[in-house]
Request: fold
Amino acid sequence: MSDTSVAGRAIIREARPEDDVTIGELLIEAYVTQYARKMPEVVYTEERKRALRDVASKRAVATVLVAEVDGEVAGTVSLFPPGAPGSEAWTPRSVDLRHLATAVRYHGTGLGRPLLDAAEGLARQWGVDAVGLHVRRGVHGVVSMYQRRGYVRTPEGDLDYLPLVYLEAFLLRLKG
Reply:
């Protein structure tokens, strides 16, 4: 599969209740597979998996987008508006971008691009000042992807949940 063919066929839309199970399983499969390969020390607890599967609760407070390829949910990303419950945004008037993932068979095809384009476009429509996100420390490839899109490392937004995880903050300024 070439990058262009998959990304070009993707239809980005808002998630519906009937997508919840598929999205939850996609998130777990994508994260567990990637971390097992690149960071084998990372373990996803059953509690974390339950939280990832709870897409309905996320849809109640955030906009969950999906990438549909050939009629199948193949990727997802969530955008939490300013002040939303569960948001980890650390600057005023910014949204929190979370849970970007593509189905394992689409890894490396560029499917994340149209998802991020849509999420960033939605943030602009909302009139916010910035898009914030967090990346697990040590996941350099993901960091590079976001930096190529203009996200800047902002340590003041880091989340220290050690010994479990340390999350590094990045911000894409949309205004000023």
Observations:
- The helical segments are 3-9, 20-38, 46-53, 55-61, 112-126, 140-148.
- The domain at 3-173 is CATH 3.40.630.30 (Aminopeptidase).
